[in-house]
Amino acid sequence: MPIINRMAELHDEITGWRREFHANPELLYDVHQTVKSVKERLLSFGCDEVVSGIGKTGVVAIIKGAKGENDGVIGLRADMDALPMHELSDKPWASRAAGIMHACGHDGHTSMLLGAAKYLAETRNFAGNVALIFQPAEEGGAGGKAMVEDGMMEQFAITEVYGMHNLPGLDIGKFAICPGAITAATDEFDIKITGHGGHAAMPHLSVDPVFTAASIITGIQSIVSRGSNPLNSLVITVTKVNGGTAYNVIPNEVMLNGTIRSLDGDTRDYAKAQLAKVASGIADAHSAKAEVTIRAGYPVTFNHQAQTDSAGRAAKLISGDERVDMDASPMMGGEDFSFMLEARPGAFIFVGNGDTAGLHHAEYDFNDSAIPHGCSYWAKLVETVMNSDAND
Ligand SMILES: [Zn+2]
Ligand SMILES: [Zn+2]
Fold it and tell me: Does residue 391 sit within a domain?
């Protein structure tokens, strides 16, 4: 398996960075320590430009190639933030921040992009420029959107953009990608059900919002199973139910919260419209009232064909044809790299994290064995896409 030799040499050093990030996780835009250490390293590698404060706390570094003329600027993106959850780990690099952990492997993503930066600054065996993008607030804070809205693409004249995420369950050294939708659009909903409270023993004198909520929870699944085309992926999940205070009291109100996941715009629009219609219709049938609020989350992460081909080609040069799945199934999770793909053509790829706990699990840990594969992919991608002949 032709991992780039230099990446194998850097494996221990990059693992050290990864474990340091893992031990010191930070949330959303509040990634100041991480940013400090990312910036220090980028400067020590000799990057030509290191700019921070993009999209609040994002960082972009530029490395200029030395292989001839090319007007292109390839963006490589990693995310830096952790999750608000308690880590279950007895490893020496376990989280030192109470209630915060790197449960999505962004510590690994940041370290692998730093490793690639070190190599690319040493070798510069490409034409044009590389923009290394370190974004905050991937986990629900739309940091990718903030960087795009802050003018990052224009400021650095980025022409195409690539992202990578680790995937537990995919073998170390394997990659998975597909053209088109690769992760889902995410929308959040609140349903406030208002009834009329009273004595639990006299339901006929009340309008029971708990009963109504139960009907709505089951009723809205008809949107997925009956109304939507079964060939178009859709998930509606109620994740929170809040209401009531006593065994013998029917409350006035119950609150439901949840998420809608879809892979195409028509299905997304349909689900949102139907959710409001079905919830209020069911509430009405029970003489209650349902107020539905839906907030748009992340758009679909949509891989462009030409860049998906480039990403697949680079991965195959590292791992071999049989270890790169070019027709992977999309995931119904969300990913705010989607905002960067709305701004520029590009592609998002999964790199195997091996047999570990799942993403967002308290026992998850990024697998350091993935490091040379991920770093080599970044380097090979740059060296194959950004050659002086390709864009003349
Ligand atoms: Zn995550
Ligand atoms: Zn993630």
Answer: no
**Which residue numbers in the chain have pLDDT < 50?**
390-392
The span from the first CA to the last CA of the chain, in angstroms, equals: 32
Q: With contact defined as beta carbons under 8 Å apart, do 89 and 23 qualify?
A: no
Ligand nearest to the CA of 109: 2
What pLDDT sits at residue 201?
98
Looking at residue 159, what is its pLDDT? Answer: 98
The DSSP code for 100 is: -
Q: How far apart (Å, rounded) are the C-alpha atoms in residues 347 and 156?
A: 19
Range of the domain at 310: 5-183+300-385
What is the Cα–Cα distance from 325 to 346, expressed in whole angstroms? 18
In angstroms, what is the span from residue 70 Cα to ligand 2's centroid?
32
Q: Are residues 42 and 177 in the same domain?
A: yes
Domain match, 229 and 217 both: yes
Q: What domain count does the chain have?
A: 2
Among all bound ligands, the one having the nearest atom to the CA of 103 is 1
Amino acid 388: pLDDT: 65
Q: How far is the CA of 333 from the centre of ligand 1 (A)?
A: 8
Domain final position from 244, 274, 296: 296
Which ligand is the nearest neighbour of the Cα of 85?
1
Residues near ligand 2 ion, CB 5 Å cutoff: 104
Residue 209 contacts residue 193 (beta carbons within 8 Å): yes
Quick one: how far is CA 145 from the chain centroid? 12
